[in-house]
Design brief:
It is built from twelve helices and 19 strands. With 462 residues, it is of the alpha/beta class. The radius of gyration is 21 Å and the shape is globular. The structure holds N-(aminocarbonyl)-beta-alanine and zinc ion (2 copies). N-(aminocarbonyl)-beta-alanine (URP) binds next to loops.
């Protein structure tokens, strides 16, 4: 099967030019001007942007959490991702407490197998790490699980102590894996939560009040300091606010290998949006929580100057009806997480490119190329170059649409961006050379997505 994409404006993290792309089977075979290769399919991309497929490195599909399970599984989630121009994702497998990483990985491999439409990889969430398990970290790296997430939040559920984090970091310094940190001071937060509940403050916004920005910046600093002691890189996930960003910026200014992502919810929403008289604020309950509005422009600035390298979604959807409602009378029972896997590229294009905060190249970089480089997939993914996987999005910069739960493909009964107008959409989406979405129609096949065996950190990062 061969495909020729003609006359598109090819935009990568570095380049911007008009050209043709010839795809043979799953790979980009040739890039040039006025290509006349005989192809089974010809796509006219005149006046469209041709970009490497989006990569979302932070999703939670089919994840048990907060007494329920996230509502998108690998079938619905990866399909929704494709509609939004995302062609690869990295989800989180969880080590069952006291059990092996292998057991956790097997569970998540089975969840994805036969269901995913796009390619997927896994980070491993470490819940405990006796010395006897350190060699399993190496085993995971050899299998392409080259990143691990540890939590400074959620005591008694996912939180580990500083020594465990240090030990994991020290190990990755040798194996080349990357530690991803959920940076919030869980012990202090739990005490604030206890006091908040005791005072009878039970509505959704109290979730945010009980997780202050300083609890995030303290932990961000601590995570970076632990990595410095261990001599390893560190990647801060779902960074929300300027206080935490300053810690990353300071570290990077000193030349430390500290990296961080933010998510659309922190760029577009503030704590004020949770201040509703009813239970609607539950739709915006996730951790870390929303911050004061002034932080949003600071995060965009961080993305521009590369102190933030990536936008991921932390897609962790729970239906309002029946799931978020578990916490109707008590915010501590609201499952933490929100949906946006389908809309990451739309939102960053609208808020970034259309509204003048990001160049087109930078938009491609934060959504595709930097995630591929940091997480060991480049140049197979995140690139438009000869030999790369033909994960390509033909993006119509003029397509106007309105985000709504009525029309989105995510399996969740609300949108965090209901009614938001977007100019720019994924018109045609190719995954390894196969058109999987065209003109808002699904053309893919459930189960065609492959596991991505990733390389170690540093092998693809420059
Ligand atoms: O509230 C959130 N973010 N839920 C997903 C789990 C996590 O910490 O990423
Ligand atoms: Zn987290
Ligand atoms: Zn998450």
């Amino acid at each position: 099967m061969s495909t020729l994409i003609k006359n598109g404006r090819i935009i990568t993290a570095e380049q911007d030019y008009i050209g043709d792309i010839f795809i043979e089977d799953e790979k980009i075979n040739l890039i040039g001007e006025n290509l006349n290769n005989k192809a089974d399919k010809v796509i006219d991309a005149k006046d469209k942007y041709v970009i490497p497929g989006g990569i979302d490195v932070h999703t939670h599909l089919d994840m048990p959490f907060g007494g329920t399970t996230s509502s998108d599984d690998f079938e619905t989630g990866t399909k929704a991702a494709a509609f939004g121009g995302t062609t690869s994702l990295i989800d989180f497998a969880i080590q069952p407490k006291g059990k092996s990483f292998r057991e956790g990985l097997d569970i998540w491999m089975a969840k994805a197998d036969g269901k995913a439409t796009i390619d997927y990889g896994f980070h491993m969430i470490i819940t405990d790490l006796p010395d006897s398990r350190l060699s399993e970290m190496t085993d995971m790296v050899n299998e392409g699980i080259t990143s691990f997430k540890l939590f400074l939040a959620y005591p008694n559920i996912l939180m580990v102590d500083d020594a465990t984090i240090y030990k994991a970091m020290k190990h990755t310094a040798d194996t080349g894996a990357l530690i991803c940190m959920h940076a919030e001071n869980g012990m202090v937060i739990d005490e604030i939560v206890r006091q908040t509940v005791a005072a009878g403050k039970l509505s959704p916004i109290n979730h945010a009040y009980s997780r202050p920005a300083i609890a995030e910046s303290e932990s961000t600093h601590r995570a970076i300091a632990l990595a410095q002691m261990a001599g390893s890189p560190v990647y801060i996930v779902h960074l929300t606010c300027n206080d935490a960003l300053e810690k990353v910026s300071e570290a990077r200014a000193k030349g430390l290998p500290a990296f961080a992502e933010t998510c659309p919810q922190y760029l577009f929403h503030s704590i004020d949006d949770m201040d509703t008289p009813d239970f609607e604020g539950a739709k915006l309950v996730f951790s870390p929580p929303l911050r004061e509005k002034w932080n949003q422009e600071k995060l965009w600035a961080g993305l521009r100057r590369n102190d933030l390298q990536v936008v991921s979604t932390d897609h962790c959807p729970f239906n309002f009806k029946g799931q978020k409602e578990l916490g109707k009378d008590d915010f501590t029972k609201i499952p933490n997480g929100g949906p946006s896997l389908e809309n990451r590229m739309h939102l960053t294009f609208q808020g970034g490119v259309n509204e003048g905060r990001l160049t087109l190249n930078r938009w491609v970089e934060i959504n595709s190329t930097a995630p591929a480089k940091i997480f060991g997939m480049y140049p197979r993914k995140g690139s438009i170059s000869v030999g790369s996987d033909a994960d390509i999005v033909i993006w119509d910069p003029n397509a106007e649409h309105t985000i709504s739960a009525e029309t989105h493909h995510m399996n969740v009964d609300y949108s965090m961006y209901e009614g938001k107008k977007i100019k720019g959409n994924a018109e045609t989406v190719l995954s390894r050379g196969k058109v999987i979405v065209q003109n808002n129609e699904f053309k893919g096949r459930t189960g065609r997505g492959n596991f991505i065996k990733r390389s170690a950190f540093g092998s693809t990062w420059d």
